[in-house]
## 1
Amino acid sequence: MKYLTNEKLTIVGAGGMIGSNMAQTALMLGLTPNICLYDIFEPGVHGVAEEMYHCGFDGANITWTVNPEEAFTDAKYIVSSGGAPRKEGMTREDLLKGNCQIAAQFGDYIKKYCPDVKHVVVIFNPADVTALTALIHSGLKPNQLTSLAALDSTRLQSNLAQEFGVPQSSVTGAHTYGGHGEQMAVFASQVKINGKPLSEMGLSAEKMAEIKQKTIQGGSEIIKLRGRSSFQSPAYNAIKMIEAAMGGEKFTLPAGCYVNCDKCGFKNVMMAMPTTIDASGVHFTEPTGTTEEMAALRSSYEHLCKMRDEIITLGIIPPVENWKDDNPNL
């Protein structure tokens, strides 16, 4: 089997459902034979490793550990789902304190054991704030760390495809920006169905509002249907993100990235923007939309600022003006 690279990929939280799916997806896509599975729960990560061995991937060098030094040392790419999952009735924000403490430790491990890592993807909720925490603690450059936001856009795309009875790939321009949570900003003004603008498809304002709400509640719906939070879709999208950073196909769905942009008015947050991930990291452009969409994005940004300020108050990250003490790249 030909692999994209031989460099080490570490999957954090590999004993869980997202982590185990990420391991299998990375191997099936042929990203690298050198995959280290890390989790603090020994039976879980051990079991995942045994399953991967039983798959018989050609040329694979799969290791597993509960030792962070072993897991992080020499890692060139990392994807982490290593936080507590969301349960029924919980919002992503309910996980804020505990998962941001985990993210702080995660960032510290990067700084200590693999400061020359090339790219990191953070996918445990609330992803915008856990990723920001990890970035500050890790010392990495902003273009080296991203968070998972694409699920919101693929859910919007899926909902529109179902509404019009077309293949999902026939729906283009369906994106959400801002936070990966209840406050996400849904941008539909540039959507096309089989090349035809959504505005010409006869969709009522009431039905569009229903689709927006269904998109926002997409994760909660999975929990109701399956009795647990999403794991296949976040695993796949996260591995496609790290694949792009490894030099594979560019990832062009919105990703959470560090934004400190005077021009667009969004400062010192991680948030979903129009992005491209490639071998040089993540790059964002300014979103464009209707007045209503931009107002929703501003509201989402303000919500992210409140969560950021809350973890500052908790002492998990320092005040904004002191971030450079921990990470000179900010």
Note: The chain has a mean pLDDT of 94.
## 2
Amino acid sequence: MSKFRQSLADKVLVFDGAMGTSIQRLNLNSDDFGGKDGCNEYLVLSKPKAIKSIHADFLSAGCDVIETNTFGGTYIVLDDYGLSDKVYEINLNAAQLARQVANDFSTMAHPRYVAGSMGPGTRLPSLGHISYTEIYQAYKDQAAGLMDGAVDVLLVETVQDPLQAKAALNAVFHTLQEKRIDIPVMASVTMETTGTMLLGTDMLGALTTLEPYPLEVVGLNCGTGPKAMGEHLHTLSAHSPFPISVIPNAGLPHNIDGEMVYDLTPPQLAHDLSHFIDSMGVNVVGGCCGTTPDHLKSVVEKAARMNP
């Protein structure tokens, strides 16, 4: 059994918070982005110390798992910045950076892990934006870099389209077979305020799509704050054969003077997540958009006193 799987069985695992929000708070300039302004993923090459500092901040808060800075790490996204030839390099370097920081913080009593983040991209196959073959290959290229960078778990997250989920998971598991390695895989869907995924799929429909795969964890992330996730977590708690994760935003964002502001405080986030652990059997918690190291420190303090 991998160390990650053992930790998942032994305790409530706490993932880190928002990479995008953390990058914004650094007020980086165009030079920091190497002229690829807005491409957060490129920072692993142009400003690696900034990304390492973000990882270290979340680990200092007590998080068990940090996610690689690769949410938009497929050529589908990177091509918008003229970086489609850098897919493998970016994902490899992102994984290696996170691995270095995680190793620095790991102890026998408290091992730290790296999750390879694989986001939804910007084109949905069910809407005809991209073919299944293209998105499948895009995820294969990304997965190869993350695996070679020694991530502990692969996370297909913010899933908005069932066909996109199938392409990503097929790509991941085929690449694992080709490399003859065994790395745990997680999947996390996003439910909109309408109560369904972006294309109208409900929680049971999403679970039906994911259930055939040998996943370690299935859950929810992004989309809304924790309160709107309760009904979906009830569904997972009643029907899912997998351990459950919940990684919400710090509430719903408000546009204040052109800036997106999230108003859920660290104690409020920790309270809501501890309720899910206690009443719905949630095994993995963390933070998505708007969550800071302070949010996760509060979550860690609550989760440390609870059992999966």
Note: Strands lie at 13-14, 65-67, 113-118, 153-159, 185-189, 217-221, 244-247, 253-256, 259-262, 282-285.
